[in-house]
Design goal:
This protein is an alpha/beta fold and about 180 residues long. Helix content is about 25%, strand content about 25%. The model is unreliable at about 155-160 and about 165-180 (pLDDT under 50).
Length: about 180
């Protein structure tokens, strides 16, 4: 007998931070969203037109992720993507509100930034936006390609499930011999 699936609606995505109110204020200014809940250690924002919002929770042991990650770095568990019609104006607005651009930018039509608590987020230009895509020079592509090749990057897949062939055997993880007992 199958139990019917209950109705589930995404209410919000929650970000941990050293101070929920400070991070919520950044996103409130960045997005123009309304604060609908403000309690000690917890703030929730909702977009003006409705839909799921963003929640912010104070977490004292919060450690910001490293991006791009290398082996042993604190990995990001998720990141937020925001579509903009003008990439330069979007970045300028985010920086004016307290964001910091990442040193490494992987694509010409995406900008990676960090919020005040160190969470990476992206601004991107969609294909659906009318007009020409931002200009990209062959020199920029070559430079980005060299940087990627020179850095020892770890992918999410490698971090979660590294290839066993690339690891030395771990005696503590080897199966016990079957003694027939």
């Amino acid at each position: 007998m199958t139990t019917p699936r209950p109705s589930l609606t995404l209410s919000s995505t929650v970000l941990d931070a050293p101070d929920a109110a400070v991070l919520a204020d950044f996103y409130r200014r960045l997005l123009g969203w309304e604060t609908v809940q403000d309690e000690p250690g917890w703030v929730k924002l909702l977009p003006p037109g409705g839909g799921s919002g963003l929640g912010f929770q104070t977490a004292q042991p919060y450690v910001p992720p490293v991006w791009p990650a290398a082996p042993g770095d604190q990995l990001m568990m998720l990141h937020l993507d925001f579509e903009v019609s003008d990439l330069e104006a979007g970045v300028a607005h985010a920086v004016a509100e307290g964001a910091r651009p990442a040193e490494f930018q992987p694509q010409h039509d995406v900008r990676v930034l960090f919020d005040p608590a160190g969470h990476p987020f992206c601004l991107f230009v969609s294909d659906r936006v009318p007009g020409e895509p931002p200009a990209i020079s062959p020199e920029w592509v070559a430079e980005q390609t060299r940087e990627i090749a020179e850095q020892d990057r770890v992918t999410i897949q490698d971090a979660v499930a590294p290839d066993p062939a690339d690891r030395p055997a771990d005696p503590a993880r080897q199966a016990e011999p079957d003694t027939g007992a």
